[in-house]
What we know:
Blueprint: H1 7-20, H2 43-53, H3 58-64, E1 66-69, E2 71-73, E3 76-78, H4 84-88, E4 94-96, H5 101-113, E5 122-125, H6 138-142, H7 147-163, E6 168-169, H8 193-208, E7 225-229, H9 248-255, H10 257-264, E8 269-272, E9 276-277, E10 280-281, H11 286-296, E11 302-304, H12 313-316, H13 322-332, E12 337-338, H14 342-352, H15 358-374, H16 387-392, H17 397-410, E13 412-416, E14 430-434, H18 460-468, E15 474-477, H19 488-500, E16 503-509, H20 528-539, E17 544-549, H21 557-562, E18 565-568, H22 576-584, E19 651-658, E20 662-663, E21 669-678, E22 684-694, E23 705-714, E24 719-727, E25 733-734, E26 740-741, E27 745-752, E28 761-766
The chain binds beta-D-glucopyranose.
The site of beta-D-glucopyranose has 6 residues, from loops.
Amino acid sequence: xxxxxxxxxxxxxxxxxxxxxxxxxxxxxxxxxxxxxxxxxxxxxxxxxxxxxxxxxxxxxxxxxxxxxxxxxxxxxxxxxxxxxxxxxxxxxxxxxxxxxxxxxxxxxxxxxxxxxxxxxxxxxxxxxxxxxxxxxxxxxxxxxxxxxxxxxxxxxxxxxxxxxxxxxxxxxxxxxxxxxxxxxxxxxxxxxxxxxxxxxxxxxxxxxxxxxxxxxxxxxxxxxxxxxxxxxxxxxxxxxxxxxxxxxxxxxxxxxxxxxxxxxxxxxxxxxxxxxxxxxxxxxxxxxxxxxxxxxxxxxxxxxxxxxxxxxxxxxxxxxxxxxxxxxxxxxxxxxxxxxxxxxxxxxxxxxxxxxxxxxxxxxxxxxxxxxxxxxxxxxxxxxxxxxxxxxxxxxxxxxxxxxxxxxxxxxxxxxxxxxxxxxxxxxxxxxxxxxxxxxxxxxxxxxxxxxxxxxxxxxxxxxxxxxxxxxxxxxxxxxxxxxxxxxxxxxxxxxxxxxxxxxxxxxxxxxxxxxxxxxxxxxxxxxxxxxxxxxxxxxxxxxxxxxxxxxxxxxxxxxxxxxxxxxxxxxxxxxxxxxxxxxxxxxxxxxxxxxxxxxxxxxxxxxxxxxxxxxxxxxxxxxxxxxxxxxxxxxxxxxxxxxxxxxxxxxxxxxxxxxxxxxxxxxxxxxxxxxxxxxxxxxxxxxxxxxxxxxxxxxxxxxxxxxxxxxxxxxxxxxxxxxxxxxxxxxxxxxxxxxxxxxxxxxxxxxxxxxxxxxxxxxxx
Length: 767
Ligand code: BGC
């Protein structure tokens, strides 16, 4: 029987099926691990969910908890034999990696028109930093400290993806990243829980279209996923999928806040992480996924496993086989199995054996069905699918403009001796352009670049050529080296170009797939071929501007000593060449600030500003490091600290004041003000950062913690007052009793330009 479900036909179908189907038990308000609570709290939706649930067989319910990955060719769907039979029987809840309106329509048609209940499918995709218009990698965007911009780029990504029939993204990734070896730092917002939480909120709000639940029903938004719960970034030795061995204090004070912020911003789904924490793989961690996530934080959406995360409980060594793995995962709180097919293969039997309660299944299915109702898929399963809309909503001029600005505001100027940058159009200089990433478009999009066409990204060479066209600037281009190789002839050519030029710009860095999943490096310097080229360029005596493209902080110690300027440009996406050219030419004054500390060498990693003091701290003003927590062969400080970045102008912060010295532990606040002045000759933006430190508490506290920031635009010479309010609640943390509260104690605060800036220090206390 073919059925197309509209609201009216749907009700008829429900009545019909109620009479002739073979439903399993599914009672309203059933409890598996507690009474089901809907995400929306909307009784009408709850009733609709229950009316569907009542019609479902146990197998159909478990089908809803099953997700498969599709393999699509450019021209259409190539359904893998593995999952087609499940699709035809109505035993799939979601499909991901299905691309093209035509292909998705075909699958949705099978689900709603050719299966017994006709339940529509959720289509997921990793829309991480853009879908077709590719924005800078998330780590880069976070360096803009511009939350509104990050929200907008997520909105645009959602508009583009939703026009192609996608209604669920596996983003944002909100894992704290303290280890530059770990390739997935590119997907997150860096090392800080406060900034990470703000970025999580901005991205969830962007993808889901706001905090109002009704925006999920617009066909321009996506369900978002907070991932990877939890502490995936704490992988030992930076090795992907490795265990995270960490105290509950660190977990709660550092790693969990961004997930909780995503939840508070209304995130509809979470993804369990691959790793174990303290011996328990997250996918089997009932404490994490049920006690903390649902019972403590009140999450009411659903949890999906990571890719074959359930099956991996076997090699992890906590399940003897995949059946037991499925039981552990579902009982822990994983509602949907991504690609592993463990639920659909084994859970019917597990329920019959009493190892999994049907109530647990019912609750999971309710949460999944509710999302389908909220997206409007039961009313019109094809509402996301419209080729015309897809054309109109793709790579529009407005999206390109936003992408270009996103690039310019994400790059971080790390060094600029003798003001070699900007190279203005009027300067009449001859510039030698070299390096493997100068005329590259393939790498620019970085990893996790959705359906972004790598050939469409603007190379830096093109950006600079267009920028300087018709001016007195002369450009000479020669590659000099590929990412990993060079030859004496190539180097000689680059050196000859440098000799003919006033200044050299070298675009160097990593291959795009050296970061992202399973892309870990133990040597985070530029590859030797590129360093060799840089050494030769340096010998010409010409100033060299190094433009670095990477998915992680690199060890740039040699470059810091030897290059005139360094512009950290990450992987900038579709508009990379234009945005970088805007900065080089001075049409945009760089405003990016680092969100991960740059180490002096890989041996310092993990390195982060919010470290603990230890019992034997190094006094940075004192040379002596005897029996102190230090290194014999390098400093303990990073090469470039968190929050750091230069501008073409200079700023001074002074006259920092606090309205009162004592703060109560509850319901109190202090107001901090300071004067911020642009002391240079160009207009520019500064990110004013507020840090605090609690000197004594029931557990050791970090030497600094970011508690606020403001990105301010100031004209040359202009002064403005900055104001921060810090509440007692902002200073709360998990102490010795593992309760989150504000403890009395002496405090310090700084109104600073970066984490190592101690110039505006104020003492206060909590009483
Ligand atoms: C990654 C996830 C991603 C999933 C689906 C996994 O390997 O860890 O972040 O969402 O694949 O592509």
